[in-house]
Amino acid sequence: MIVRTTSEITGTDRDVEGPGWRSKRIVLAGDGVGFSFHETTIEASTVHEFHYQNHIEAVWLIEGDGTLADLDNGVTYELAPGSMYLLDGNERHRLFARTRMRMMCVFNPPVTGQEVHDENGVYPALAVAAD
Ligand code: 9YT
Predict the structure, then answer these.
(1) Average pLDDT rounded to a whole number, residues 14-18
(2) Of 7, 17, 106, 108, which one has the fewest beta carbons inside 10 Å?
(3) 68 CB within 6 A, ligand 1
(4) Number of separate domains in the chain
(5) Is it the case that residue 129 has pLDDT exceeding 60?
(6) In a domain, 84, yes or no
């Protein structure tokens, strides 16, 4: 059994930040369980584009609200606490955080932790939305 707390992750190499986002990698590939588990926070009024070409991701929104756009077909979804989206088709997508959004994310196969430096299959792009 593995037990971890946020305080053990904060400020370590499992705590990764970029412009307008921060992700705490709670479980990684090195834990050897077949998935990774992340807490991702996206700041209010920011827009992020992601394309996980090699991973399936499930995202459960805990706090905040915003809009998700499926860039493969142009369909948009309003997200609020309790919303889940599952990228079961490696969809290119855009997230707009109307307020600060806190999400729990699961990746299969697991993220190793190196992807933030070498965005192999992960292509984030960021723009700050106009007020
Ligand atoms: C919202 C989202 O796609 N989060 C994924 C995790 C994040 N990109 C990370 O841990 O690097």
Answers:
(1) 92
(2) 7
(3) no
(4) 1
(5) no
(6) yes
Give the range of the structural domain holding residue 85, as residue numbers without chain letter: 20-108
The answer to whether 72 and 91 have CB atoms below 8 angstroms apart is yes
Alpha-carbon dihedral angle through residues 60, 99, 74, 49, given to the nearest 10 degrees? -80
CB of 23 closer than 6 A to ligand 1?
yes
Average pLDDT value for residue range 45-72: 95
> Any alpha helices (H) in 11-87, and if so which ranges?
none
The ligand 1 atom nearest the CA atom of 124: 8
What is the number of the ligand 1 atom nearest to the C-alpha of 111? Answer: 10
23/15 Cα distance (integer angstroms): 6
Q: For residues 96 and 58, give the distance between their C-alpha atoms in angstroms, rounded to a whole number.
A: 17
Q: Nearest Cα to 57, choosing from 116, 127, 111?
A: 111
